[in-house]
Here is the input.
Amino acid sequence: GAVVSQHPSWVICKSGTSVKIECRSLDFQATTMFWYRQFPKQSLMLMATSNEGSKATYEQGVEKDKFLINHASLTLSTLTVTSAHPEDSSFYICSALGLVAYEQYFGPGTRLTVT
Amino acid sequence: EDKVVQSPLSLVVHEGDTVTLNCSYEVTNFRSLLWYKQEKKAPTFLFMLTSSGIEKKSGRLSSILDKKELFSILNITATQTGDSAIYLCAVPPNAGKSTFGDGTTLTVKP
Here is the structure.
């Protein structure tokens, strides 16, 4: 089946620094990937849709200058949290649009802690 | 605005019990309804439902969709502690961009 990886799985950074999270589709090409954020005991919140070769589409309320998304190839999308603050601490999950219509394949997630 | 509502939000049962999780939806362009199980990491896919009245089954889990009443249920029989997780329901009105419900947190006690 389709596999999506994320790196790193866990990161701790200091306030004010930037952190990059990678999302890779390992055995298929993904023209569309999605970035979600999840707070403890809450559901997934879509942050943005990442399309290969074009600008990401951000959901309302998500700061595009703070959460930079780059989908430079058909197998890689990156999310950079710039000037991170403690309130950015969260679980970030990416997914890739699947081969079966409307099915998403999720990465294992990245837990970000900003101190 | 598309909406997906899951109930209950939280459920605690004992091993061996049967549980029913609910998902109702209002979307402008329904194509399918997806169920996911989320343990400590990212969600794993359980079922995709597109047609009313056709039960999908996988072991002790089953799910059915009612497109007239706009809801789906996920049943788990003979629950085990390993079934403890958040169960998410999602409706993708267009390619991949799913609207997720708030999830049902299921805790199965030994």
In short: Chain A is about 0% helix and 50% strand. The interface with chain B takes residues 32, 34, 41-44, 46, 49, 93, 95, 97-98, 100-109 of chain A (CB under 8 Å).
